[in-house]
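Memo to structure team: turn this sequence into structure tokens by end of day. - J.P.
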Amino acid sequence: MARFTILTPAGASFTTSGGGYAYEMEALEGLDAEIVECPPTEEGFIAAAPSADAVYAKGMKFTKRMIDALTKCKIIALGTVGVDYVDVAAATAKGIPVTNCPDTFIEEVADHAMMLLLATHRRAIEQDRMVREGRWSEGRPQLLSVPRLMGLTLGFIGFGRVARAVAKRAAPFGLQMIAYDPFVEELTLSDLGVRPGALSEVLAQSDFVSMHLPDTPLTRGFLKEKHFRQMKPTAIFINTGRGPTVDEAALIRALEEKWIAGAGLDVFEVEPPKPDNPLLAMPHVILSPHNASASSRFDPARKRRVGQELALVLSGRWPMSCVNPTVLPGSGLQRWQPYAMTRGPNS
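Reply from structure team:
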């Protein structure tokens, strides 16, 4: 049996450091495979690239130069939902599948989005500060101007897995829901009590606008100043998707000039945000450090998923979550039949 070398940059990923590769190796146990670390630099990776049968992408950007240096690589596996730190087009040109973990942290992110919605609506952080600062009497007057949540409208921009999970959580609160996603069938929306709408309708009608687009060349800077101007002055903007999908300068202006009332943000255009970012000083903005997906199961789940994808491809089968936009000619992979019977590889 051939021995497979899985190349990965040394050091921690974006979560906890250390811990080894025990979770990843569970699915690889039947294969003669080892995970080998290389220096976490572009040049260090390029030097080691010819030895790689597979790449475990973490901790750094993977450029076209790095991918072009791979001579026998069969897969680039990511332990994240987002794939924006890998040049997928370069990988596709070389016939290398790129995999991610699109369905591993859905519940956590949906919980977080709902938390931001409720906390911004009920001004939770401001109310907490009033109590701590001895401003007790200011709390009730502030909330007397806040409308009842039941009957308000939640609008989604993008209606993928996380948005659908948010919709399930929002329905019991009595929220009306509308979504803009030209790639999702109307029946998928209606089954969750969500009606379809044009982007302009979602922006104009929603009391909460929840952003769920991935970061791709087509979606980068998707929400601009003209879009924030279409929103209600009482609206709250929620983003648990990707920061670069929003023109952050336009969002800041919208908040400063009160085109909208507030925001709940887990993601930013530049992460971490710079100390002088105006968002950090705004009272009706709730922020979190891009950790919506985090929970005690985060690392074990994503690492096991990486191992599963690596094992599938190294044994000649199709991965569960291939993000490449086109069929990969000459890859020699067979679609994994247990999944192919019920769904496509990108479902």
